[in-house]
């Protein structure tokens, strides 16, 4: 691929729901493989990639807490779900011949490495895809916040958020036909208008460290590379 990418190092945030494919829950292997192919194509552009994957396809802490479960316990269960997703993604990437490491914020040495910033940086410098699991390791923080935190720690040029829609809208476009789509927003636009890009702590962390948030659809083959080279449909959130 000859196109020049806009960013040298990015963090790709994929929601757990994106891994379900057409299913109602769990992991759709074909969908995980397609995302892995997109990551492989992006690496061919000489882009360094690390990833954070949500756990909503297996367990969502907030809904568990809403059903009467202790919020901390529910969030820890959600973190364990992200480890399962990370291992599934690692397996898909390695089947494509890509060197991959899973680093978990909750130590579980039997299945993955503990998160150590310097080790993660070294893996990325060696061209490995690093998948960060178990969120921040703390309850009450979402995987969006974990993604923003890891993007800052890894000195990423951008936070790529792969979602179910091709950018940021004023309302859910699948429910509201009149929803307005945005090409470009500032962090303050997102916060003041309460746009559902990421949670407020993730947006604030990105704003403080001047890391653009690029929102695009993860559901089209090749979308990641198109967005990295400035093509395709996406919304970018950055400072004015």
Describe this structure in words.
The chain has 8 helices and 11 strands. It has 240 residues and is an alpha/beta fold. It has one domain (9-238): 3-Layer(aba) Sandwich (Carbamate kinase). The strands form 2 sheets. Strands 4-3-5-2-1-6-10-11-9 form a 9-stranded mixed beta sheet, with helices on both faces. It has a two-stranded antiparallel sheet with strand order 7-8.
Structural key phrases:
two-stranded antiparallel sheet, nine-stranded mixed β-sheet, single chain, alpha/beta, globular, 8 helices, Carbamate kinase, 240 residues
Query: With helices defined by DSSP (H or I, 4 residues minimum), what is the helix count?
Result: 8
**What is the assigned CATH homologous superfamily?**
Acetylglutamate kinase-like
How large is the radius of gyration?
17 Å
Shape: globular
What's the CATH class label? Alpha Beta
Domain count = 1
Q: What class would the helix/strand composition place it in?
A: alpha/beta
Assess the beta-strand content as a share of residues.
15-25%
Residue windows where pLDDT falls under 50 for at least 5 positions: none
The portion of residues assigned to helices is 25-40%
Order of strands in the sheet with most strands: 4-3-5-2-1-6-10-11-9
**First CA to last CA: what distance?**
32 Å
Per CATH, which architecture?
A: 3-Layer(aba) Sandwich
CATH topology: Carbamate kinase
Instruction: Report the mean per-residue pLDDT as an integer.
Output: 93
């Amino acid at each position: 691929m000859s196109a020049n990418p806009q960013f040298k190092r990015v963090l790709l945030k994929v929601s757990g729901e994106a891994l379900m494919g057409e299913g109602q829950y769990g992991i759709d292997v074909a969908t995980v493989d397609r995302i892995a192919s997109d990551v492989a194509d992006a690496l061919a552009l000489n882009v360094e990639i690390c990833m954070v994957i949500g756990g909503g396809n297996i367990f969502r802490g907030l809904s568990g807490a809403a059903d009467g479960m202790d919020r901390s316990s529910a969030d820890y269960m959600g973190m364990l779900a992200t480890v399962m997703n990370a291992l599934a993604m690692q397996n898909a990437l390695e089947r494509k011949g890509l060197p991959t490491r899973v680093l978990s914020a909750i130590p579980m040495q039997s299945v993955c490495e503990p998160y150590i910033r310097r080790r993660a940086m070294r893996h990325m410098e060696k061209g490995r895809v690093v998948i960060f699991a178990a969120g921040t390791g703390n309850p009450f923080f979402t995987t969006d916040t974990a993604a923003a935190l890891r993007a800052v720690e890894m000195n990423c040029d951008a936070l790529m958020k792969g979602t179910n829609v091709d950018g940021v809208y004023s309302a859910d476009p699948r429910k509201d036909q009149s929803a307005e789509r945005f090409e470009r927003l500032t962090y303050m636009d997102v916060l003041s208008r309460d746009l559902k890009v990421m949670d407020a702590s993730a947006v604030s962390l990105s704003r403080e460290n001047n890391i653009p948030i690029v929102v695009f659809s993860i559901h089209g083959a090749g979308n990641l590379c198109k967005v990295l080279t400035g093509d395709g449909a996406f919304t970018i959130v950055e400072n004015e």
